[in-house]
TrEMBL record:
One of its GO terms (biological process) is pyruvate import into mitochondria. It is a multi-pass membrane protein. This is Mitochondrial pyruvate carrier. Mediates the uptake of pyruvate into mitochondria. Keywords: Membrane, Mitochondrion, Mitochondrion inner membrane, Transmembrane, Transmembrane helix, Transport. The chain crosses the membrane at residues 43-63. It holds the Pfam family MPC. The keyword Membrane applies. One of its GO terms (cellular component) is mitochondrial inner membrane. It is found in: Mitochondrion inner membrane. Belongs to the mitochondrial pyruvate carrier (MPC) (TC 2.A.105) family.
Length: 107
């Protein structure tokens, strides 16, 4: 019971945004992971790029904020990973890697 009481009253416990922010934030990488089964033509390259930048910035924030929020850091690392995967799927579907190969071979 003491451990639960300590967690409840801690600076990163359920009474704070340091706890609920990451809990709600996990919906973004979970949704992106679910979207990885959809066709890559449905991916927005602009939005996925913005999500990559957003997660990179907030990874730094989560590490620098006091108290350090490792739960938020892990959430954004997961989101960055999934968004980079989605961005690579989008680029392959658009033929960006094929274009570079053709340019290198034709020069």
């Amino acid at each position: 019971m003491g451990i639960l009481h300590t967690f409840w009253n801690s600076p990163i416990g359920p009474k704070t945004t340091h706890f609920w922010g990451p809990v709600v934030g996990w919906s973004i990488p979970i949704a992106a992971l679910a979207d990885s089964k959809k066709p890559p033509e449905l991916i927005s390259g602009n939005m996925t790029t913005v999500m990559c930048v957003y997660s990179a910035l907030f990874m730094r924030f989560a590490y620098m904020v006091r108290p350090r929020n490792y739960h938020l850091l892990v959430c954004h690392v997961a989101n960055e990973s999934v968004q980079l995967y989605q961005l690579s799927r989008w680029a392959r579907a658009r033929g960006h890697s094929q274009k570079k190969d053709e340019d290198a071979g034709g020069a």
